[in-house]
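Thread: Modeling a multi-component assembly for a lab meeting

Hi all, long-time lurker, first post. My supervisor asked me to bring a structural picture of a complex we are working on to next week's group meeting, and I have zero experience with this. I have the sequence lines for every component (789 residues in total). Could someone generate the structure of the whole assembly? Inputs are pasted exactly as I received them:
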Amino acid sequence: MAYDKNMKILVVDDFSTMRRIVKNILKQLGFDKIEEAEDGEQAFTKLKNGAFDFLVTDWNMPNVSGLELLKRVRSDAKLKSMPVLMVTAEAEKEQVVEAVKAGVNNYVIKPFTADVLKEKIEKIFEKMVKK
Amino acid sequence: MDEMDEIISDFLIETTELIEELSQKFVELESNRDNQALVNDIFRSVHTIKGASGFLGFTQMVQLTHITESVLKKIKDGDIFLAPNIMDVILESIDMVKVLLEHIKQKDEVEEDLTDILGKLQGVYDGAGASGEGAKSAKQASATPEPSVKDDNEELNTEIDLEDLQSRFAPKDEDHDSQEPSEESSPKHVGELLVEDGKVSEDDVEDALTIQSMIKESIDTGDVPKVGEILTATDKASREDVKKVLAKQTAPADKGQPQQVEQTIRVDVERLDNVLNLVGELVLARNRLMKLVANLEIKYADTADVSHLSELTAFINLITTDLQLAVMKTRMQPVKKVFNKFPRMVRDLARTMKKEVELRLVGEETELDKSIIEEVGDPLVHLIRNAADHGIELPDVREDAGKPRYGTVILSAYQEGNNIVLSIEDDGKGIDVDKLKEKIIERELASHDEVERMSNKEVLDYIFLPGFSMAKQVTDVSGRGVGMDVVKTNITKLNGAISIETEVGRGTRFLLRLPLTLAIIQALMVGVANEVFAVPLSSVVETVRLDKKDIKTIRGQETVFLRDEVVPVYRLANKFYIDSSSSNGTEKVYMVVIVVNEKKFGMMVDKLYGQEEVVIKSIEGFANSSDGIAGATITGDGKVVLIIDPTVIFSATLQGHK
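Re: Modeling a multi-component assembly
Sure thing. I ran the full set together rather than chain by chain. Output:
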């Protein structure tokens, strides 16, 4: 799958301000097909029902965490190749190992700029093309 | 408003909500220290605030929440025991978060001096503030910040946290170095396991690690391929094997409780107010329409068009009523919103006063109109403070009286018909009515004889007079003579009522009765001469037709003997200086019986028109309701009518100056 400004992105975070911020940055980068979910549970339902091309999820959320969501995505036949970018905070960086183990494509540490996000997304999709 | 402003205002709303919940959770946590879920929730909230603040460039907020988060993490990991003094520091930091939020809101760019609170938090973090938790320091000592490969995840955590903390004051835009330990610990796990499983040789892993470190040198972000990836890419191991190993590694994550997803949207209150206002107008228009149709039906009884119109009007009536209810519902909020701040307040109070007080919240889900929720906070603060300060005794005193050392204050909310009742109940010493009587006489508010004739309720009502304080000693907390009268005024402003029940030695209970909504009320329309007034139906008990001769004057006060009860009578006409037939000798008059503070009054009027739903409109330039006018409304026939505020009219007479 190629990197495409028209791809449908799901932004997951329990804090609506954060969703807005991430959405805003994604929009700056030229993406506009962006939907939101407020936790892993809701996100997973949305992913199952909608044809999303890219998942940007927060780590620390109530109910179903970002990591749990990632695991569910990876073990779902339909979704398992979905590119996933994990948004983490500094305090979680030691846990990134876990996310990497669970198959995250990349992660980005809060706060990040549009450039950093762009770089991360580009990397994810470059790699996917290579495979 | 541009995008950024909108995000910031979102941030403010959301963070304020989080903080409110936090205060509650902290207090809960103190009484239930082992509640891991609670600690996690708190940690996550602080974490979330920090995350968003980082994006929005609120440096001070990031500084503060960062160290608070670190402390919370230690509590979460069991490295710090949550002693009350540590709780104090954390609560102080949350208070500071509020202060910072206020600065953000005001956009005043003011920087707070955080040295003190940061120092305290640092102290707690370093264990200085904690009471010799020796066992934990050993762990810290063993975690030297040397970026070696760690297998023990917990040790790793501690280590990074320390580093984290060291760099707290340093600018940390791109400190990817600190990720190294975690990056390196990852390959070892995967590689090791693959070797254990006999899928790859140790040399293969070694090679993969070399490749990885090469890649790592060439790029400067944390995006390094995993050993597993490298092994598969170089065909040393199959994807399946790597996956299998990975699966083995991943601990079974705790299954989150599938929770029903709540679909909500945020709406600006102004918009809701606007909708409510429009519905109010619609209700008024509906009332007029119904009146017109009723007239038409009389005039053109057999016309098909008129009967269709009347059918349609009935339908519109139904829809309007439903719409009105629905709109009112959108403005309803659980009282939890106000209740949440009280556990913290009571906790702080109890600590300053060296008392043991438990606050129990009941019925937090009960819903009230937003505007009432906002107004009821201050009165509740007062009543709860009073309960904790004057009501609950010191632990030793309580023990001597055969009560448990800790006092209980119960704050509850429940619906009763069209009212919401809030009750503040303590099991303290109660109010001594005899002492109160002495005080009333001493302050020359009533004569000895008068006081003797008063019911306990009437005596207790004096508490609500301005400048009347029950506290013998003025404390820091309450008893400065301001308060109860303000409480009463505020509740009255909301069309509510307040009453007291008390028993010496057993406790006191304050009951606040509040309407569900403020904007639309049922009213009784009455006439005096050519004027029409609306009387809120909530305070009307009954209407009586009287013979003039039934009115007896006792000591200058007109009264009526109504079913074994003496009811004082007032003439609405006199109140508003209107010439009316009721004051000019017609034989039959109407009396509306009104209850204010559980006391009955008769209000004499010339005509009774019936019940109508009225939308209260405030009168511009007439903010002061001390004249007994609650507002105005437009009736079905298009007339502007004043709405009477019986509480004000009759509480003035209660106090003797009519």
